[in-house]
């Protein structure tokens, strides 16, 4: 996969992290231009001729390596190799976009690290959505040979230190992985819901085109169109429970939120979020490192995902009702049997986890560095929580899928949705 500084998507980040795709480099022209400008800069440059944070007005000489050593202090469990691989790829792509001023000879070395599966010992805690300074400082010291790792080395100059670590690459990597996986689950859930509709003979009337055109919510229209193509049964009830009647509205909101979150993350994957930004022969001191947009998008995604899961549990409950399925209570094989009752416990447990993970992080803040840094996005936490949503969301949809299979009987080749469901299941497997 060629990295060029543009066109990196959440799906491509996932392929690099989990699919083993090797990366190649596009043009280094933008990186070389910024580097050459950086070598000729006059006047104070934050983090290079000055200290950082509250020390921004303190002149320093060759303080970059000290900056790395002081900031390479994370805590908690080590981050998994796939996530660190994604982080390296994201930072590499950002550097290709130019604007950092880092030595371009570093970029092929980073590509070698990605392709060789090198894993810097990055720990979980150490960022608040204003740059992944600890994770990237650890990586820089690995490149310098001061921290052991199984990857290549590169003699980062003192002047390369801040330009290399001035990024939220680890946060963006987690966000990209979460967006890709949650999107895949939401996509597969439409096929699962179609089976649930059939299991209770739910009406397809709420999915009608005329209904969708009366309310032009794009996510709703997309979901309704997909589900409409899978269903042809005539309605047997005037109105079904909300789990069916409002499926397009609720699930469509989650689909739209996933699309919006992906777009927001992908903008930053291809952006030079450097501070200072080296451009137009100057060093521009700025706040592009602040990830408020990502934090808010992921907060919205987690909330929408939890709501979609809640409606899945409602459909699951409906399939336990003989008045809707025409089967025995709980889809039992014989009268008095418990059947699939336990699925409701499992799904509700997973749903409770999703509700917990849905709490917004973007309403928080932090004041650090003697008041100089007086706000934080907590996008790091938003991304981490979004990744944690994947497992319980899969559990909820899986419980619904099992119940639908039981309600419809054992899947057979004559069932028109079997191929769709098998495809969805395969997509889920390959998405990991």
TrEMBL record:
Keyword Cell wall biogenesis/degradation listed: no
GO MF annotations, alphabetized: histidine ammonia-lyase activity
Pfam families according to UniProt: Lyase_aromatic
Domain of life the protein comes from: Bacteria
Keywords (A to Z) from UniProt: Lyase
InterPro entries assigned: Aromatic_Lyase, L-Aspartase-like
First-level EC class: lyase
EC number: 4.3.1.3
Name of the protein in its database record: Histidine ammonia-lyase
Natural source organism: Nonomuraea soli
């Amino acid at each position: 996969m060629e990295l060029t500084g543009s066109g990196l998507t959440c799906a491509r980040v996932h392929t690099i992290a989990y699919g083993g795709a090797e990366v190649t480099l596009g043009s280094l022209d933008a990186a070389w231009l910024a580097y050459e400008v950086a070598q000729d800069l006059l006047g104070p440059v934050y983090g290079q001729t000055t200290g950082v944070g509250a020390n921004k007005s303190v002149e320093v000489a060759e303080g970059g390596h000290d900056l790395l050593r002081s900031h390479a202090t994370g805590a908690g469990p080590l981050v998994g190799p796939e996530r660190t691989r994604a982080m390296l790829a994201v930072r590499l792509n950002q550097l290709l976009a130019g604007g950092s001023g880092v030595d371009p000879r570093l970029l092929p070395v980073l590509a070698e690290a990605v392709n060789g599966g090198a894993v810097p010992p990055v720990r979980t805690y150490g960022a608040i959505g204003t740059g992944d300074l600890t994770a990237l400082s650890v990586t820089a010291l690995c490149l310098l040979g001061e921290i052991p790792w199984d990857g290549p080395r590169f003699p980062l100059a003192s002047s390369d230190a801040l330009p290399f670590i001035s990024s939220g690459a680890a946060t963006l990597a987690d966000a990209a992985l979460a967006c890709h996986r949650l999107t895949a689950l939401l996509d597969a859930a439409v096929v699962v819901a179609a089976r649930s509709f059939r299991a209770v003979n739910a009406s397809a009337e709420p999915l009608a085109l005329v209904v969708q055109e009366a309310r032009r919510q794009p996510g709703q229209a997309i979901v309704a169109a997909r589900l409409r193509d899978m269903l042809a049964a005539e309605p047997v009830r005037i109105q079904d429970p909300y789990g069916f009647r409002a499926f397009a509205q609720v699930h469509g909101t989650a689909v739209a939120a996933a699309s919006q979150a992906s777009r927001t993350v992908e903008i930053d994957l291809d952006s030079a979020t450097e501070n200072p930004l080296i451009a137009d022969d100057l060093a521009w001191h700025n706040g592009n490192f602040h990830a408020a947009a990502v934090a808010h998008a992921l907060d919205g995604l987690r909330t929408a995902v939890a709501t979609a899961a809640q409606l899945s549990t409602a459909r699951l409950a409906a399939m336990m009702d003989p008045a809707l399925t025409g089967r025995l209570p709980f889809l039992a094989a014989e009268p008095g049997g418990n059947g699939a009752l336990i699925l409701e416990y499992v799904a509700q447990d997973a749903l409770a986890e999703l509700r917990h993970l849905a709490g917004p992080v973007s309403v928080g803040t932090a004041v650090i560095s003697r008041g100089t840094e007086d706000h934080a996005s907590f996008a790091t936490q938003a991304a981490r929580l979004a990744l944690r949503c994947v497992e319980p969301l899969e559990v909820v949809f899986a419980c619904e899928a099992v119940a639908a299979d039981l309600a419809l009987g054992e899947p057979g080749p004559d069932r028109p949705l079997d191929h769709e469901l098998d495809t969805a299941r395969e997509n889920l497997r390959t998405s990991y």
